[in-house]
Design brief:
Layout (H helix, E strand, L loop, with lengths): L17 E3 L2 E3 L5 E5 L5 H20 L6 E5 L3 H7 L7 H10 L1 E4 L13 H8 L4 E7 L15 E7 L9 E2 L4 H14 L17 E2 L5 H15 L8 E6 L8 H15 L4 E3 H12 L5 H8 L8 H22 L8 E7 H10 L6 E4 L1 H14 L9 E3 L4 E3 L18 H14 L2 H16 L5 H4 L12 H10 L4
Parallel strand pairs: 3-4, 3-5, 5-15, 7-13, 10-12, 10-13, 11-12
Antiparallel strand pairs: 1-2, 6-7, 6-14, 8-9, 14-15
Helix pairs in contact: 1-13, 1-14, 1-16, 6-7, 8-9, 9-10, 11-12, 13-14, 14-16
The structure holds NADPH dihydro-nicotinamide-adenine-dinucleotide phosphate (NDP), 2-oxoglutaric acid (AKG) and magnesium ion.
């Protein structure tokens, strides 16, 4: 079937990427749509395109080439398609047709106006895994004393949670109706809620967390962990399940459930590892003493709770002692969980103990900015939004409007998002060249303002955005 566009024309040369079993089949001449982005997108995108093209030309000597297809979203789309046409059908058609796309940041107004175009793209194409690696490039200035110890990948659920955007403004008819219904019908009917009431002047938002959404994200995170060497072959489920039991707590439980059902042979949970190693150290250990060692405060618990923990110890030993016991668990993927506020301090105090951080949408949004800050800031934070039939690559940061059009912003994050795209396409040689170029530029103190101001001694003057791109390319041949 011929695909038709209203205002854009695909390149006349180049081929289409297709997907099979969730993996892209990439020709040597793929057509790849790109969105320039708002704000600093005008600076970052040209720098990124130049670096990616130069790396491919150097790595493959003309055998491979990306045929870029400019598509529109955000402010630029409104200029071409008309007022309020922030995300035109042409753009969606192109991304669907060509499967892999890359974008600059897009503006979202606060407290009103359009909902996020970035979030909309993730939801429209069901890009359920937002993958944001945070690793340190030697020489990058950091507010942290040992940034090289942090090497984590945030796997953020990307389609649900409060980002579904189902909310009602305070004082509107529906918000009032909903609060009244909750206060009079639902809350009193649920004894655990006691006499709680929602304030009558509240705005209301809905936070859906589904089993399907949680488990497909955790599946991707575990599959990635399987490719990592020890001790990085581990997945931490991040949640605030102590407070939000049926959303965040359920995310944790569904994560463990998936690990134990789909990946039983290759996974061990942290709790299981404690139970197994207790028995390894003392083969005569009673079930109750084992339970006492894995559950601090065991002796103060009710008999019912003690019995439950003893039952868990028994069932773990019955189920996996043969396959995971006697030290075998040490070669498996470790799945553990941490409460969200704690993980923010853990990545600073114990950075080397973590690897893949599987999160829900909001926690992952916060955590990916925080982790990027440790390894040098938002100029060094790449990302990918991955689904089963489409992937869109974009940085962790936003439009940084105060720097727009000044040719000063760090294009590193979108360039590194391009590296992730090349790796996803299987074009590893080009990806490696760019990583080498970035590492060498930073080591030579050829950096943009954000890194320049933190370096000791500060670099003055810093490179412009476009000069940083040239510096990266100049190191391809080192
Ligand atoms: N995926 C997307 O497209 C995203 C879009 N947004 C949107 O972007 C807009 C602006 O958001 P805002 O909260 O200001 O966050 P931003 O991430 O855009 O910028 C905040 C600050 O982070 C630093 N920063 C950001 N990008 C870079 C970079 N490439 N190099 C160096 N430093 C950088 C700058 O700090 P300093 O000035 O101190 O150097 C900047 O002022 C909002 O509309 C928001 O919704 C936000 C996040 C993601
Ligand atoms: O869409 C937006 O404007 C913000 C999204 C965001 O912060 C993110 O995805 O990290
Ligand atoms: Mg964010």
């Amino acid at each position: 079937m011929t695909v038709s566009y209203e205002k854009i024309t695909p390149p006349t040369t180049g081929s289409t990427i297709t997907f099979s079993d969730g993996k892209p089949l990439v020709p040597d001449d793929p057509i790849i749509p790109f969105i320039r982005g708002d704000g600093t997108g005008v600076d970052i995108w040209p720098a990124t395109e130049k670096v990616i093209d130069a790396a491919i030309a150097t790595a493959y000597a003309g055998q491979r080439k990306i045929h870029w297809f400019k598509v529109y979203a955000g402010d630029e789309a409104c200029e071409i398609y008309g007022t309020y046409q922030y995300l035109p059908q042409d753009t969606l058609t192109a991304i669907k047709e060509y499967g892999i796309a890359i974008k600059g940041p897009l503006t979202t107004p606060i407290g009103g106006g359009i909902r996020s175009l970035n979030v909309a793209l993730r939801q429209i194409f069901d890009l359920y895994a937002c993958v944001r690696p945070c690793r340190y490039y030697a020489g990058t200035p950091s507010p942290h004393k040992t940034p090289e110890k942090l090497d984590v990948i945030v796997y953020r659920e990307n389609t649900e949670d409060i980002y579904l955007g189902i909310e009602w403004k305070q004082g509107t008819e529906i918000a009032d109706k909903l609060i009244n219904y909750l206060n009079t019908e639902l809350i009193p009917a649920t004894p655990e809620h006691g006499k709680k009431q929602i304030p009558l002047d509240a705005g209301i938002g809905i936070k859906p967390i589904s089993k399907t959404g949680s488990q497909r994200l955790v599946r991707r995170a575990i599959e990635r962990a399987l490719t990592l060497p020890k001790p990085k072959n581990q997945v931490t489920l991040v949640h605030k399940g102590n407070i939000m039991k049926y959303t965040e707590g359920a995310f944790r439980d569904w994560g463990y459930e998936l690990a134990k059902s789909e990946f039983r042979d290759v996974c061990v949970t942290e709790m299981e590892s404690w139970i197994l190693s207790n028995k390894e150290k003392n083969p005569d250990l009673s079930i109750e003493d084992n339970a006492r060692m894995v559950e601090p405060g065991y002796d103060a618990l009710t008999d019912e709770k003690k019995a439950k923990i003893c039952q868990e110890v028994t069932s773990v030993l019955d189920a996996i002692w043969e396959t995971h016991g006697k030290g075998q668990w040490q070669d498996k993927i470790m799945v553990n969980d941490r409460i969200a506020d704690s993980i923010f301090q853990q990545i600073q105090t114990r950075p080397d103990e973590y690897s893949i951080l599987a999160t829900m949408n909001l926690n992952g949004d916060y955590l990916s900015d925080a982790a990027a800050a440790i390894v040098g800031g938002l100029g060094m934070g790449p990302g990918a939004n991955i689904g089963d039939t489409c992937a869109i690559f974009e940085a962790t940061h936003g439009t940084a409007p105060k720097h727009a059009g000044l040719d000063r912003i760090n294009p590193g994050s979108v360039i590194l998002s391009g590296v992730m795209m090349l790796e996803y396409m299987g074009w590893q040689e080009a990806a490696d060249l760019i990583k080498k170029g970035i590492a060498a530029a930073i080591a030579n103190r050829q950096v943009t303002y954000d890194l320049a101001r933190l370096m000791e001694p500060p670099v003055n003057p810093p490179l412009k955005c476009s000069e940083f791109a040239d510096a990266i390319i100049s190191h391809f041949g080192d």
